[in-house]
Specification:
By secondary structure, this protein is mainly alpha-helical. The chain is about 40% helix and about 5% strand. It has a two-stranded antiparallel sheet with strand order 1-2. It is globular.
Length: about 150
């Protein structure tokens, strides 16, 4: 009887060991997309190397904008990104200087962190709580947003 029980334990251990052999390799790092400062004329969707934080919040904010914001707000901040489709309400047009005058820096940063639903606006604007843990990132994104209206 003990031999049978020991056999089952060995079989179970062997099966568990087989699962460890089939581990998936870690995912490759995402391609880096460089978004230029508003108005510098570069192609905002051109891949350039790998996504590595540079330590410069403004440079890193361009990459975050390309990945998270550009699909809806567009390369020039007009709210005409490639994934907008028939989204209602339309994404905010960052180039609207009058609208920018009506919102504080603190409000922009809050919307970036908690999303639209977090401030009583559309839930289509997703929250980005992870960005608060990256020093200077949220203020750099706010600075980019403000920069779109200066054209």
């Amino acid at each position: 009887m003990k031999v049978g029980r020991l056999s089952w334990i060995l079989v179970a251990g062997a099966i568990a060991g087989l699962g460890a052999c089939k581990k998936k390799p870690p995912p490759a790092p995402p391609a880096r997309i460089v978004v230029p400062a508003p108005g510098d004329g570069a192609n905002p969707s051109a891949p350039a190397g790998t996504a590595v934080a540079t330590g410069d919040p403004r440079e890193d904010a361009r990459g975050v904008y390309a990945k998270r914001c550009l699909p809806c707000h567009g390369a020039t901040g007009r709210g005409d990104g490639p994934e907008v489709g028939d989204l209602k309400p339309r994404p905010v047009d960052f180039t609207d200087a009058e609208r920018q005058k009506k919102i504080s820096d603190a409000q922009i940063e809050q919307i970036i962190r908690v999303g639209g639903a977090g401030v009583g606006r559309t839930p289509a604007m997703p929250p980005n709580p992870d960005l608060a843990r990256r020093p200077g990132m949220v203020p750099a994104l706010r600075e980019m947003i403000r920069g779109f209206a200066k054209k």
